[in-house]
Design brief:
Length: 154
């Protein structure tokens, strides 16, 4: 005589399983969407439609540093909206925006600026900030450090 033991085989109902699969697909899709969204940046162009990153290559300016005074002369034809100063010293660096006396419309062709910076830095890199147009209106774009002008203070 064979005794059959009936085991209760219970599982997830097909409806609950389908709902879990749909929820997982939605969450994975949302993660991928946010990841790609973070990788793409909004395009900023100059007002003639040129990408602002390419315009950074065309920025030309001369600068000098004496005591605690910095002097900047725009020798190119691209207006410089603002200027950031990266101050290097003692194994660290800080970034300051030149604001004292900086023209509201930016440094136009042939314009000059003079302002003060702390003299405790060993090296100063001046990096131009340009203004351009994006989908949300006018936007400032800080050029790369390689487009900057290096000043030594020692």
């Amino acid at each position: 005589m064979t005794i059959k033991i009936m085991r209760s085989k219970r599982g997830i109902s097909p409806i609950v399983a389908s709902m879990l699969l749909v929820a997982m697909v939605i969450v994975i899709g949302l993660i991928i969407f946010l990841w790609f969204r973070g990788m793409t940046e909004e395009a900023i162009t100059k007002f003639d439609g040129t990408n602002i990153k390419l315009v950074c290559e065309e920025v030309q300016f001369d600068a000098s540093y004496s005591g605690d005074k910095v002097y900047v002369l725009n020798t190119g034809d691209v207006p410089i909206y603002k200027m950031k100063a990266m101050l290097f010293g003692d194994g660290s660096h800080t970034t300051k925006t030149l604001v004292d006396g900086w023209p509201e419309d930016g440094l136009l062709q042939g314009d000059a600026y003079s302002g003060t910076l702390p003299d405790s830095a060993e090296k100063i890199v001046l990096v131009p900030v340009l203004i351009g147009h994006s989908e949300k209106g006018n936007a400032a774009y800080t050029c790369d450090e390689r487009n900057g002008y290096e000043l030594t203070t020692i």
